Model the fold of this input.
Amino acid sequence: MNQKRWLFQVIVVGFILILPFIFQSAYSHHILVSSGIFILLSLGLNLIMGYTGQMPFGYPLFFGLGAYTTALGSTLLGTTFWHGLVAAPIVAGIFGFLIGYPCLRLRGPYFAIVTLAFAEIFGLILKNWVSLTRGSMGIPGISSPKIVIPGLIDFTFNREIKWYYLVVAICALYLLVNRSLIRSYVGEAWLAIRENEDLAEAVAVNTFKWKMVAFIVGAMMGGMAGCVYAHYYNIVSPDLVGLYYVTIAFNIVIIGGRGSLLGPVLGGILFTAVPEYLRASKDLRQVIFGVIMLLGIIFMPQGIMGVVNDIRDRWFRGR
Amino acid sequence: MVLLQVEKVSKFFGGVAALNGVDFGISSGEIIGLIGPNGAGKTTLFNLITGFIRPSQGQVILEGRVISHLPPYEVASLGIIRTYQKTSIFPALTVSQNISIGHHRWSQPGFWAALFHARPHVEERAKTQARVQEILEFLEMTWAADSTARNLSYGDQRKLEMAIALSSQPKLLLLDEPAAGLNPEETLGMMRIIEKIREQGITVLVVEHDMKLVMGICERIVVLNHGTKIAEGTSEQIQNHEEVIKVYLGEEDEELN
Done:
């Protein structure tokens, strides 16, 4: 069984690495990268929503924070992508703490709505503080990442295929962190909170502390995703904290499979790549997509990963 | 030795006194029963001892330390562990995971150790696993280790609740109607489990309506009615206590005599 699993993993990794050579157009590379960014965003959300069971409707706030942090740094101070990659999660993490501290004392819908309010406030600030953020026009001209070692390497991430590997690498980092936490006693405490918060508290789990940890780690991941977004598209705008990104990120986690490590990866691919190939017409695409979502929620409450796990159980254990 | 002292505790919800000057102590190693009609304040008292609500007056003292202002998880960290009246488990997790979470108070190597799976974390996990195995054997549930908790029968779910509580190695175990909804045979099994728990040196406070269970295992019984303690004593004393009989069976109707 272990050998079979090992072989399977090698095939999957190999497939991911050669994927840009199967779909060769720059357009398909672009779709892969943008779904990669959504996957990053959803992996952070999955810790808060999938594992700890909290519904942070305002989650894209952290995406926007990360994006604007690096956008302002890049255009005003001339910082690079690599600075942003460190600064964005730190800023998002600090705000995660400040927002989580009052919000996480609330439960269920109250928590969801108060976080949404914070995102709205942030969005309004971005739109109205024109002298700093240029309002709805957004901030263009964000630099592309470079790797420069004088005299040796001068490499710019200026083509989609280069970005693909960069995003895959960051995804791998996210997955490693998630897997490590989920398999530890921290992940167990998160699951306990999701499953039964009162009982968790009654067996000495400091539920507030662990919800905070999930919220801050999730916020940092959202912030880093925002940084990647900003340097890939070279422009940021207040839309980043709007309803569009909330909806997409939540859909990805729910359809992919709440509380499964790889759920957001599958959900992210489904939600960005597949619609692009359903381009019969723009209106019809939305309809097809809505139907897929409805059917998904009705017939796969555990998301795609629920189905995948069932198949895997049959495959590897043999029923 | 007094383990827990409930000192003149009152709790008011608006104008209603859910508890009114309740006063009693629990000694180490005892099994104490807490009985009373519905609405007598038994569950309120449980919530109050475990920190889920604060007393309006009075205090709760554990081994000389006032604990009635602490949040629930800290009370639990000090070794007071409760079960709930309605079955309360972690439904989507396996039986092993459920029990492993119960051990949380002994095994907290910290976030960074967890993130990097550093040695303290690995060692703690191994200890927790050993503890889970021990509990599974103690309660004869080894067969269910990998089952999802929600798929267990009702009786086994109630046993799993005990397993989660036991896994935390409590000083004082508060059981809220452990036999509710169990058939007579399962109730006997539950009595045996409670006695085995006492043999491990764990003090038990049990709320229960099943008189056979209460009279069978409790050394001392406290009776509550309308938020006040009306009697305290051995099962014989309680069975012959005039006011207790009045509360449970009603007063004799004078006109009939």
